[in-house]
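Feature request, filed as a ticket because there's no other form

It would be nice if the structure record came with a short human-readable summary line next to the tokens. Right now we just get the raw output. Example of a typical job, pasted below so the devs can see what we mean:
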Amino acid sequence: MATKLASVLLLIQLSGYFSSGTCGKVLVWPTEYSHWMNMKTILDELVQRGHEVTVLASSASILVHPSKTSAIKFEVYPTSLTTKDFEDLFMTVINRVIYDIPKDVFWLYFPQMEKLMWQYSDFIRKLCKDAVLNKKLMTRLQESKFDVVLADAIGPCGELLAEILKTPLVYSLRFSPGYTLEKYSGGLLFPPSYVPVVMSELSDQMTFMERVKNMMYMLYFDFWFQTFNIKKWDQFYSEVLGRPTTLYETMKKADMWLIRTYWDFEFPRPFLPNFDFVGGLHCKPAKPLPKVNIFLFVVFCLFIVRVEALHHYSSLKGTLFLTNIKVFPNIDSKTCLLVSFQHLNHSSLRSQSFTS
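Raw output as currently delivered:
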């Protein structure tokens, strides 16, 4: 009898290993530009594996919109904002960061950065308000019975949707200014004695004075810098949920944090089990190289010149290529790069170094 019972239990256990997995329904709260490009690659893979993916996009979205070539579903909701408003916001932020804000003194740089982040925060809060207060939209989302909400942590609202829909929450994040979201919402520790604060331009090999500087950065981000206008978000979340709460308290309920980089690229520091490094997960597999026309062979052969000549002509202003060729200052003057096309039929390239 004991032998039969053991056999039955073993059979049940093995059937669990070999049974096919079930597909789920994913609701996505995205952000724009590179964040959306990274996330879309993951969503395309989920669709190929049989999952049902629905992206919640506003009518003001720039890149997040339905595509005929994609199997991803889009739930577009109306908003009082326009696409031009969104584009103008991003162009203002980019121009201010590149041209206007001084970068040499951090107590001048980061307050200006905070103002720009708050402009973005207010814009996202309006989009979030238009979504969660749309009763017809929220009814459709609740009836869809999603299994998980996937959101970009830099654009708040995904955690509010997960709280309303009573579904698990998964974040996608590269990093937040000063690691504030990772610390206050994710519970990570960043010992300032050996972990440089992100955006401080310090390394993990710090002198005593650099450690003091790192401590100043940490105190500044902890007590003065706010990535989002926390007061407005806390009030908004409390009104929607009908109870006192905060943005960080809601974000703390995230079940998983997907960090868009490799573990070995980061500075060593403590991590929690629900933080997973997924560097490369958002990258598409490389496509095979196409067959190269023999004309390219002639072009590359004519391109063999000496480095001294390139440095000589690089003094001519207005020639971007010849100016940027200075990135090769250590290449021997007699060394040139020749591309071999010996295997054109196999669509492969080999680079060989030749010495004249």
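Something like this underneath would help us a lot:
The radius of gyration is 26 Å.
Residues 4-20, 304-356 have pLDDT under 50 and may be disordered.
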